Amino acid sequence: GKHGHAKCHFVGIDIFTGRKLEDIVPSSHNCDVPEVTRKDYQLIDISEDGFVSLLADNGNTKDDLRLPTDEQLHKQIKDGFADGRDLVVTVMAAMGEEQICAIKDIGSK
Questions:
Q1: DSSP letters along 36-85, please?
Q2: How far apart are CA 52 and CA 25, in angstroms?
Q3: How far is CA 84 from CA 13, 26, 64, 96, 104, in A?
Q4: Nearest-5° Cα angle at 52, 91 to 99
Q5: What pLDDT score was predicted for residue 1?
Q6: Which residues pair with 38 in a beta bridge?
Q7: In sequence order, what are the residues at sequence separation of 6 or more whose Cβ sits closer than 8 angstroms to the Cβ of residue 37?
Q8: What is the pTM (predicted TM-score) of this model?
Q9: HSE-up of 99 (CA within 13 Å, CB side)?
Q10: For position 17, what pLDDT does the model report?
Q11: What is the maximum span of the chain, computed from C-alpha positions, in angstroms?
């Protein structure tokens, strides 16, 4: 408003859902910023119920992620895997959530 304290108007896009979110905060206040990490894994398997089995650089497997909800990415991963291609997926993580956000084809097996 015209009187009172300066405000900061934040507009952000949720990296997992694509939804637009807004917040208005007094400029004198601190605000939290999410730490976003990206990590590449090799795709080993896709289960019947849509979970993926991933291999990390250190040899550990990760089996708690589902195929992405993005239809195009979902199709690319399933088709590439069905064709027997070596796929590397990028997993983005923030605030306790993880999701596959990209795919790279590193050739045929």
A1: -EEEEEEEEEE-TTSEEEEE-TTS-EEEEEEPPS-HHHHHHHHHHHHTTE
A2: 40
A3: 35, 54, 22, 32, 14
A4: 30
A5: 52
A6: 92
A7: 92, 93, 94
A8: 0.79
A9: 15
A10: 84
A11: 66
